[in-house]
Amino acid sequence: MFRVLGFLTGGKSPKRSDVSEDDLHADTLGGADRARLEWASQRKAKGITMELLKIHSRLARLSDFQPGKETNEIFSRLVSLCCEIHDTETIDRVFRDGMVQAILPPLRKMCSDAEYCLEDHWAKHITAAPSTDEAIRRLKSFTYYRNYEDLTRHEICAMLSAHPVLPGKVAFIGSGPLPLTSLCFLEALKKRALPGNRADSEDVRYPANQSLIPEILNIDRDGAAVESASVMCAKLGSLGEGMKFQCAPAGGEALDLHDFDVVCIAALVGGSQNEKEGLLRRVAAKMREGALIIMRTSWGLRSCLYPEIDMATEEMLQRVEICSVVHPYGSVVNSIIVARIRTRPKLNGDANGSIPFITTLVC
Fold it and tell me: What is the CA radius of gyration of the chain?
């Protein structure tokens, strides 16, 4: 979760033998400034820590996480706090705090439960619309609809940097009761333009396989979520055409991902590094070589909401080649990892009987 940091010396000068004269002179001039910056960092970290503890305490007192005035206000404050940009030393101080470490797992679980409640509420609200036009209007009035457009646009741009052709078949694991990312992705594939593109020009198009009808397979282990999403998409008319659904655990035996160009994994699928690695191992084994996998991660204080993924572990790198990592600022909470499924070694060896090494694919 933590990035490599350069720790401040707090104004204490190192031994003369350890530094050059220029370094020593700079240290003498900058000692007071560094002490001031460290004090400011400590103060900011303490303020953030106290606010996180306060928010956790308020959430723990709620009887449920159904959308409502108090629930919305608390989570809005949490998201706003976690989207603030601070220096790495301040962030590290927050995450080193023992009380913060203790509340992070239950806080993320609360966020997950609240997100499900919010999505389920809106899926039912959209489904209850008296017409297709009204259902689409309600969908696009969802509080975070523009955020999903922005996030999906980031993902598609990162994906196109790895392979400059729009995919024909995409799977989304952990789609939930309100599959907004899938709908934004599907609309982009149909129009061959980025989500939220409001340009009048018809010339803004991305290359695509014209022989394929765009298809998004939404996968979730929760049968109620799959049913809710399926019924809602049916209400959306042509906007929902191309949305398919399957109730299955991530990487389950019944899951066949070989024909998919891209597989996306939601941020809340897998709650720890070990779970993420196990998930990638199972999913990658079901994908074809060269296909792309998009995983959502987090950075900075955003890691309070979603777990951060370390893609540099041996378990990860022996299965995928990292193409790009995108850390959006602003209101987009999730970060994006785009990776390519590596060429698998042939078990029977090559023509000379030797076992080839896994080769690195250029993204």
Answer: 23
Distance CA 276, CA 255 (A): 17
- What is the pLDDT at residue 205? 52
Query: Are 152 and 287 part of one and the same domain?
Result: yes
Q: Where are the beta strands (DSSP E) in 255-300?
A: 262-265, 292-297
Report the mean per-residue pLDDT for the chain.
85
For 176-192, the pLDDT digits (tens) are: 999 999 999 999 999 88
> Tell me, what's the pLDDT at 51?
98
Tell the residue number behind the tokens 């941020």, with chain if given: 267
**DSSP H helix total and E strand total for the chain:** 10, 7
pLDDT at 357 over 60: no
Please say whether the beta carbons of 267 and 303 come within 8 A: no
> Is residue 337 within 8 Å of 309, Cβ to Cβ?
yes
Cβ–Cβ contacts within 10 Å for residue 272, how many? 12
pLDDT digits (tens, 9 = 90+) for 310-344: 988 998 999 999 999 999 988 899 999 999 999 87
Q: How far apart are CA 143 and CA 159, in angstroms?
A: 26
Domain that holds residue 85: 18-120
Quick check: is 12 in a domain? no
**Is 56 found in the same domain as 78?**
yes
User: Confidence class of residue 195 from pLDDT cuts 50, 70 and 90?
Assistant: confident
Beta bridge partners of 338: 294, 324
Q: How far apart are CA 227 and CA 110, in angstroms?
A: 23
Domain boundary among 120, 146, 176: 120
Q: Pick from 120, 152, 172: which residue ends a domain?
A: 120
Which stretch of DSSP H or E encloses residue 173?
strand 169-173
- CA nearest 226: which of 135, 297, 77, 123? 123
Proportion of the chain above pLDDT 90, given as a percent: 69
Give yes or no: residues 137 and 52 share one domain.
no
Domain with residue 294: its CATH number is 3.40.50.150
- Residue keyed to tokens 């079901």: 286
The encoded tokens of residue 87 equal 């220096």
Same domain assignment for residues 101 and 60: yes
Q: CA-to-CA distance for 281 and 291, rounded, in angstroms?
A: 14
